[in-house]
Amino acid sequence: KQWYQRRVPITAGVVFGADSRTSTGTYVANRVTDKLTQVSEKIYCCRSGSAADTQAIADYVKFYLDLQENETDEDPTVEVASRIFQLFCYQNRDQLSASIICAGWDKVKGGQVFCLPLGGMCVRMPFAIGGSGSTYIYGHCDNTYKEGMTETECLKFVSDAVALAMHRDGSSGGMIRLAVLTKDGCRRMNIPGDQLPTFWSK
């Protein structure tokens, strides 16, 4: 099962969001899944592909980041976390179905977003989308995204994109979970299913 995920950096951090539906074929196994996965205090990932594969990879990455933090007494960087994700995804590319978006804030480069599609390539992007719902919204995102957006603009951009993907994709649905990650930590928000943006029907 693949799901929609969305991340975009702002000047002081990163805004990211996802739907909450996990499906097994045509059966919805969980309608309130939390797909925003923490791997370090200020680094999160979104996962698409096999839930079992991506959960295992995220657990491994969290373990190695904790180990590095204990050995160096410093917070890990977003790029280091992304490269560890890349190591697991690339070396096991024939056995795993895993696509990752790793994003967060560190004192070296601020807010960053790294995209790791199937196969294990790792690229820093101004914004990243993934999962089955993302195929419906590339045009919307390319047309709407702009550099230097405020936090409010980013939250609207992300929530609109996730809502549009959920509307078009049968494997996406439920509610929208949003998060803003800055040097001060992570702030979480939820948009219930009955309050989703409906801009496309106006």
Helix content: 25-40%
Mean pLDDT: 90
Poorly predicted tracts of residues: none
Q: SSE string, helix = H, strand = E?
A: EEEEEEHHEEEEHHEE
Beta fraction of the residues? 25-35%
Number of strands: 12
- C-alpha termini separation: 31 Å
Task: Sum up the overall morphology in one term.
Answer: globular
Please compute the radius of gyration using only Cα atoms.
16 Å
In DSSP terms (H or I, runs of 4 or more residues), the helix count works out at 4
| Class of secondary structure makeup | alpha+beta
Please state how the strands of the largest beta sheet are arranged side by side: 10-1-2-11-12
Largest sheet: 5 strands, antiparallel
Compile the SSE list and pairings:
Blueprint: E1 5-10, E2 13-18, E3 22-24, E4 27-30, E5 36-40, E6 43-49, H1 51-72, H2 78-91, E7 98-106, E8 110-116, E9 123-124, E10 128-130, H3 138-144, H4 151-168, E11 176-182, E12 185-191
Helix pairs in contact: 1-2
Written overview of the protein:
With 202 residues, the chain is of the alpha+beta class. The protein has 4 helices and 12 strands, in the order ββββββααββββααββ. The chain has helices at residues 51-72, 78-91, 138-144, 151-168; strands at residues 5-10, 13-18, 22-24, 27-30, 36-40, 43-49, 98-106, 110-116, 123-124, 128-130, 176-182, 185-191. The mean pLDDT is 90.
